[in-house]
Design goal:
Elements: E1 6-12, H1 14-26, E2 30-33, E3 38-39, E4 46-53, H2 56-70
Antiparallel strand pairs: 1-4, 2-3, 2-4
Length: 71
């Protein structure tokens, strides 16, 4: 495709993100959120840095490389 990842920098809310995260995960993507890069959970609500990528290794690499640029 035209993009290998999705980065969302803002407040994470289940009504805005849960369905999209589920779709990405069903397609085999890894979705991480937060400062520690933990797996997304619909119960999480608050400021976050969300990354969806083909694998958790790629998601963490993207997080590490782009977080300083967007902070």
């Amino acid at each position: 495709g035209k993009s290998d990842c999705v980065i969302h920098v803002s407040k994470v809310t289940p009504w805005d993100h849960a369905a999209n995260v589920l779709l990405a995960q069903e397609c085999g993507a890894s979705v991480i959120v937060g400062e520690e890069g933990q797996a997304y959970a619909p119960a999480y609500h608050g400021p976050a840095y969300l990354v969806a990528a083909p694998s958790s290794d790629i998601a963490h690499e993207i997080y590490i490389k782009t977080k300083p640029l967007l902070s």
